[in-house]
Design brief:
Blueprint lengths: L2 E5 L3 E2 L5 E8 L8 E8 L6 E7 L4 E3 L7 E6 L4 E6 L8 E9 L2 E4 L3 E5 L2
Parallel strand pairs: 2-11
Antiparallel strand pairs: 1-3, 3-8, 4-5, 4-9, 5-6, 7-8, 9-10, 9-11
C-alpha cells in the first residue's frame, strides 16, 4: 500500500517561497506509470490542482501556477518536493500530495500552510 506524508513549515511570510516535501513509502516514485501530484484546498474553497512529476521525471503545471511553481524529486530519498514562490495570503491552503496510477489515487493527509506576516 502506497502511503504519502507531506511535511514542511506551517507558516510562510508573504513574498517568500513555500517549500513542501512528500515522502512516499510502500512504493518507488520511479515505478512505471505513477504520477505524483500536488493539490491544494484554500479555506472554504474547492480543490486546486497545482502540478505533477511523473515516474520518468517529467513535469507539468497548471497554467494558474506555472510561472511560480516547481515540482522536483529526490529518488534516493523517495521524495517529491513542491516549491511555490512569491506567495501571498491567497496561497493559504491545505496542501496535498497525491500519487496516481491508472484509476488509483493515494492521498496524503495534507498539511496546512498559512501565509501571513
Amino acid at each position: 500500500q502506497v502511503q504519502l506524508q507531506e511535511s514542511g513549515p506551517g507558516l510562510v511570510k508573504p513574498s517568500q517561497t513555500l517549500s513542501l516535501t512528500c515522502t512516499v513509502s510502500g512504493g518507488s516514485i520511479t515505478t512505471n506509470s505513477y504520477y505524483w501530484r500536488w493539490i491544494r484546498q484554500p479555506p472554504g474553497k474547492g480543490l486546486e490542482w497545482i502540478g505533477y512529476i511523473g515516474y520518468s521525471g517529467s513535469t507539468y503545471y497548471s497554467p494558474s501556477f506555472e510561472s511560480r511553481t516547481s515540482v522536483s524529486r529526490d529518488t534516493s530519498k523517495n521524495q517529491v518536493t513542491l516549491q511555490l514562490s512569491s506567495v501571498t495570503p491567497e496561497d493559504t491552503a491545505v496542501y496535498y500530495c497525491v500519487g496516481s496510477y491508472n484509476a488509483m489515487a493515494y492521498w496524503g493527509k495534507g498539511t496546512l500552510v498559512t501565509v501571513s506576516s
